[in-house]
Amino acid sequence: MNGQSLKQAGRPARPAVAALREIDPTKVIYLALAATLVIGWVLVAVDGGDFLTVETIVGIQQRSAALGIVAVGQTLAILAGSLDLSVAYLISLCSLVAAETMAGRDGGIAAGVAAVLAVSALVGLVNGMVITRLRVHAFIATLGTALIIKGVVDHLYDGPAGSVPDSFQRLGYDRIGPVPVSALLWAAVAAAAWFLLRRTRLGHRIYAVGGDEEVARLSGVRTDRVVVLTHVLCSVCAGVAGLLLAARLGAGAPTVGTDGGYDLESIAAVVLGGTALAGGKGGVAGTVGGVLLLAVLDSVFNQLEVNSFFKDVVRGLVIVIAVAVYARRRKGRQI
Amino acid sequence: MKRTLPILVVLAVLLAAIALVNPFFLEPAGFLAFVKRAAPLVILAAGQYFVIVSGEFDLSVGSLVTVEVVVAARLIDGQESATWWVLLLLIAVGLLVGLLNGVVTTALRVPSFITTLGMMLILSGAVFLWTGGAPRGALSEAFRTFGRGNLGPVPWSVLILLAAGAAAILLMRSDFGRRLVATGDNERAAALSGVRVARTRILAFVLSGAAAAITGILLGGFAGVSAQVGQGLEFSAITAVVLGGVALGGGRGSVVAAMAGALTLEALFTLLNLYGISGALEFTVQGVIIIAAVAVGALRLPAWLAKHPPRKQGDTHVA
Amino acid sequence: MSRNRPLVALVVTSTIVFAAGCTSDKPPAATGQSASASAAPAATGAGTGEQSKFFVQADFDAQLAMRTKTPQGDASRPWEQAIDPQMVSTAKYKKDGGVHLCFSNAAVNNPWRQVGWKSMQAEVALHKEITKFTALDAEGKDDKQISDIAELQGQGCDALIVSPNTTATLTPAVKAACGKVPVIVFDRGVDTDCPVTFINPIGGYAFGADGAEFLVEKVPAGGKVLALRILPGVDVLETRWSAAKATFDKSQVQVVGVEFTDGDAAKTKSVVSDYIQRHGKIDGVWMDAGATAVAAVEAFEDAGQPVPAMVGEDQQDFLQKWKDGGLTAIAPTYPTYQWRTPVIAALKILAGEEVPKTWKLPQPKITSDTLDTYLRPNMPPLHYALCGCEEMPGFPENWGGKKS
To answer: What's the sign of the alpha-carbon dihedral A171, A172, A173, A177?
Structure first.
């Protein structure tokens, strides 16, 4: 049932390698996160600032919530050996669907949320079916879906549209002490995904399909169905992120998803969190760490007023170096 | 050749459709203008093909093209005399970036999607860090000639395209080509049969870097300095290669088909423009076509279809 | 099942805490619909398509009228001038001692914003009373800018300058900030009048009309005009096009095409070449931003045709081309010197001096008569001439130019 156990069963490991394997990428990412927090705090203090104010802590959470929710969904797709490049455009579409359906009415909230969930699930279903039934590589399938959504959105909208009622905007702005509601929403999504992956049969199957699709099929898993389901869940996560952004912006915006770079950035966050791009290895906890690391980096850069070009260079280096470190740790596994 | 046929049929149909609306397209000047416009993407697609057929991705080419143009403008700074050493330097930068991508992917075992995604961020950040946010300097007339000028009636970029295309075909017919396809098809088997897998892949990335350098030189020449010249080109190049029937994951497809894929993509844009499809819906059409093309390519697999593949594929590609 | 306990605990506690009451960073008032979204009569004709839903006749008329008014203030310092100022008192913001100035920037992702941003930094450096200047770059992301504005409120700013990424979506965040510090908004606006002052040049309608009127004058009746736009949906660009459209619709010129170029030089060149092929001759080119003007000029050169009447912008490469080729051209501007004004405004406000509620800066156009004043060959090709930065310390190196 479980891809990892299937794989390990056939191959007795040498003790030294086994010891290396014990160090989980998830721990690495949280260590890196802690180190970044400390270094950032020192750097900002030297600069004459105060890093850990309530505003920065709230800021880190607000800035990472939407990316975090998308990345949780992306984790599911990547674990199953797929990936989703359509999330950015889907987020824009969903923010518009939400704001247009709600049209500023409190009574429209339920309909708006339902519409977003339906639209995003449908897009995920299409992605999954194109990948499994038409046998199109996920990269191309989701890139194609992305272009289709982009065309439709750009054709129908030439600027922010619709509006969400005040009560719904509270999702984006309210907080409980230092914890914004958006961060709680992210935590809930992450916890649900964690539960799904670790405690349900579907979770084990996702790992199995991502680990080795052929072996999974041979051991009786309906692999196509698993891939379709992960894509539906991934798209629904993007839909939830779209709802959150609509609440933040007070309206739907046709470029909010792409401006945020949620497609490539969510994939980067997932692999930064130690999930293997090839699938089958990793988990939601790492992804949460990856998103937080990116957000803390952002916040440190913000406080130090580092220019955005330098940020890109550092982000690129961090991602490549992190994945290289994980690859070294996994070396024993691959051959 | 059998694999190349479907995309050539599609290309022919699209070209015919363009000629139907725009008769000027049939004149040598009109057709050459089209090839000239397509040349940068075709060369970029050829470079991307090497990487894809070896089983990898190169997402850094778009940023690399921008880097090449911005670097060229700053270093040349309008002086004709600087043109030649800057050209050499640009090619060297392309090769170096490819080498780095290749080494990080093979030696450090970072998936190429991530390596080149990181490289994309690093390159675009670093170049504007260097120029202070916006391009500086100017390109020389001699530099512009390659992308803009003609040799007699034939644009330079068409000649460069022919040379690059011929080189790519020769490379794929050589030993290297066979090793490359073997690597992408089955890494383990290739290694067992004596192919130095890592070295082959590194060379594929280096070729992609070189192709991006040439593309940068042509695009900078064609349209001048711009901060966003390479934006999105990585996806266009990958799309073109896949449209040519080359499988992501490696091991299948020909370089001619990849280049034909790029021409097809360019023809498709031209056609959509000519028929006045609204700017935005163009993307939707493009998305549907990409998915359809790859889906049809995948249909090849069932045995009962394999008996007459070319006709079947040709027909459905058009739809 | 024991491992699920933390999860259950989390859900339960968060529900309890949520129910127990919470704080909100959201402003109390409702967000209005975008003010500019009023319905416009659908006018069609002359090949220009339907009028943009962003078009507001009253604003259009007001901007066109503003072009001929004489701005108040020193004409050699246009960034301090104002057209028809309605002054407001700022006595309640008066403050002694050093100033901590904060700035939430939408992005620095294009040459226009780069030039402006450098001018603003230079302006800050001119004032010793500014002891601290904190600037956050939202990198073109609405969501990040909302967080940035919230974060800046916790940093003890004396005044907050905002250059919003999008009008409608940044309105709630700006409203929230208004309650805590004096806010100065410039470039794009917000749908609220809570900022102390809103600074920008005359605007997009004037920009679009300046170019279109020039073409109507230079292109013979029945002549063919090609309109090039960057992309749909950006309010500033929509107003430019809608003004041009209104002008063309009243004229005898024929608009043969309205095309989007994504601001990409190669695409622009291809589009223009296609039109030259298809129509044989184009008599004028209008554009909503000048970044690709040179590419359009080159398309005519490469086709071996004389360059027709052109609309560009105040970027150096276009001005150079204009001069070298002796073009028939005009360059409407959206001056980058507006980046200096917010700093000046902030200091006035904190000194308790009156400022205009709506600070309209003059928006000159470059004509063949004034071309030589603005052309500076030592500046980079994408430098904007109306930076108002020539006298500032660090010019021209800090703007990427060479001393000469």
So the answer is: positive
